[in-house]
């Protein structure tokens, strides 16, 4: 159990967005906190890495994808029972390759997000993302 007063852990999170607005969500694999919950892919920023470098590395490791470019979108801090995280969200419309399940995780392209349960820090973002994607 981590002390929530500790400095938050920086996490790079990527939202792959297709031309029609569909986004990629992944399911957390067994053995991780919140296993089975759906989230946008990403991971911890390693010492000496920029957030964008971490994002690109995580997408290669988890999904076998190369992100060509991504723009910073928003940041959210969330305190989970197991960790205090600072999530840095990027949107990418420019990547190479098809997603592969390299960590045994399920993933799904979603228009209107229908997968459940969603990771708690992800829930408010869906509404913001819908405004960005669909202007509502």
TrEMBL record:
It is an enzyme of class 3 (hydrolase). Signal peptide: none annotated. It catalyses: 8-oxo-dGTP + H2O = 8-oxo-dGMP + diphosphate + H(+); 8-oxo-GTP + H2O = 8-oxo-GMP + diphosphate + H(+). GO terms for biological process: DNA repair; DNA replication. This is 8-oxo-dGTP diphosphatase. It holds the Pfam family NUDIX. The keyword DNA damage applies.
């Amino acid at each position: 159990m981590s002390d929530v007063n500790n400095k938050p852990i920086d996490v790079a999170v990527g939202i792959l967005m297709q031309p029609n607005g569909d986004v990629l969500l992944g399911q957390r694999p067994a053995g991780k906190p919140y296993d089975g919950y759906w989230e946008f892919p990403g991971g911890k920023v390693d010492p000496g890495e920029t957030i964008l470098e971490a994002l690109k590395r995580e997408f290669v490791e988890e999904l076998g994808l190369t992100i060509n470019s991504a723009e910073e979108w928003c940041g959210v801090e969330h305190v989970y029972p197991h960790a205090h995280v600072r999530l840095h969200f990027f949107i990418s419309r420019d990547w190479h390759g098809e997603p592969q399940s390299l960590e045994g995780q399920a993933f799904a392209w979603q228009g209107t997000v229908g997968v459940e349960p969603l990771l708690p820090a992800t829930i408010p973002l869906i509404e913001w993302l819908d405004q960005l994607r669909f202007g509502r």
